[in-house]
Amino acid sequence: MVRKAGRTGEAGRAGGVVRRVGEVEQVEAAGEVNRVGKAGALRRTHIAALATYVPPRVLTNADLEKMVDTSDEWILQRTGIRERHIVDRGVATSDLAKEASLAAIAQAGLTPDDIELIVVGTTTPDTIFPSTACLVQHKIGASRAWGFDLGAACSGFTYALTAASQMVASGAHRHALAIGADVMSSIIDYQDRATCVLFGDGAGAVVVSALDGRSAGDVGIIDFAHEIDGSGGPALCMPAGGSLRPASRETVEGRLHYVKQDGQTVFKFAVRKTEEICRRLLARHGLTPSDLNLFVSHQANRRIIESAAARLDLPADRVVINIERYGNTTGATIPLALNDARADGRLKQGDLVLLASVGAGFTVGAVLVRWSI
Ligand SMILES: CC(C)(COP(=O)(O)OP(=O)(O)OC[C@H]1O[C@@H](n2cnc3c(N)ncnc32)[C@H](O)[C@@H]1OP(=O)(O)O)[C@@H](O)C(=O)NCCC(=O)NCCS
User: Is 154 a catalytic residue?
Assistant: First the structure.
């Protein structure tokens, strides 16, 4: 196999010979090999706890019918969404992340002082700086943690999970928080019917811990794959508010501090890439989609998830869809879907679960997990 170096999360190889040839790394392997760790140098990690939080206020399709020219029928048919949760004024991403984080830490049987790293995947930080990670660290009292925000839009959670997991796998830290949290309502134009029906607010947090002494078999976080493709930038973006177009009277009057998207381009890319990255990650382990117990993808649109699942030949009972209740909460969708699946008894210890995401950028991610809690 020949691949571009650094294109995926194949952080070293066991069982294959790796040669660097310019920008391209050639991996001569028995099949497509395991990831990880020069000769097993990395520790295995797992999701030790998972918790989510959504603000109490609900915005239904009927509410939106009163705000823009839309209908419950259109929204449900085109997106699968019935309602979404929206914060009250003054509530920010770090507030939602705090609730999810404290619950996850308690569930893991830890205290905030046990957390050494906080990675927040968010597109709606409380402020450009300080980072939301700093705000969460202070709000939960994680006195020993460092951390950072990670901008990967709707791939925020898969990227944060991989980043946190690799830091724990390296031996640098024992317990990390990977958070996906967004207050999308802060950057949504509630006069634009093409986008305002899609998004909601929410947060999810997992504690990622080392699996010392429990490493028999493929338990925990098995592998990951990620891509970025900046050519897709214009298809989904917030045009102003950054260094290119700082806030000005013109940007505000032009409504440029809101999400703009070419829905069909995003839709097609998401379906194609979700299938591609999932098959690639599974193939690396000699697996096919039929080996999965559960497929938990980013929840952007019911039709995207169903189309990707159909391409992967996955039956409906192995696909988690909960977009109906939350809309697209960007960084929070995958933890919200995992948590609902767990509550319903669909996600069980020992299940082989594939997480997948596509987001603005474009960003693409997949994480393969043997569920351990
Ligand atoms: C946004 C999305 C739901 C639109 O669905 P679609 O089937 O592509 O619909 P179109 O954009 O082609 O619009 C079809 C018609 O519905 C209209 N429409 C758009 N939003 C509407 C709404 N909320 N209510 C009623 N009509 C609406 C359009 O104006 C258009 O009307 P026209 O035919 O008269 O021009 C869909 O493209 C999508 O989900 N894309 C991906 C978005 C996404 O996942 N973003 C986040 C990625 S992480």
Answer: yes
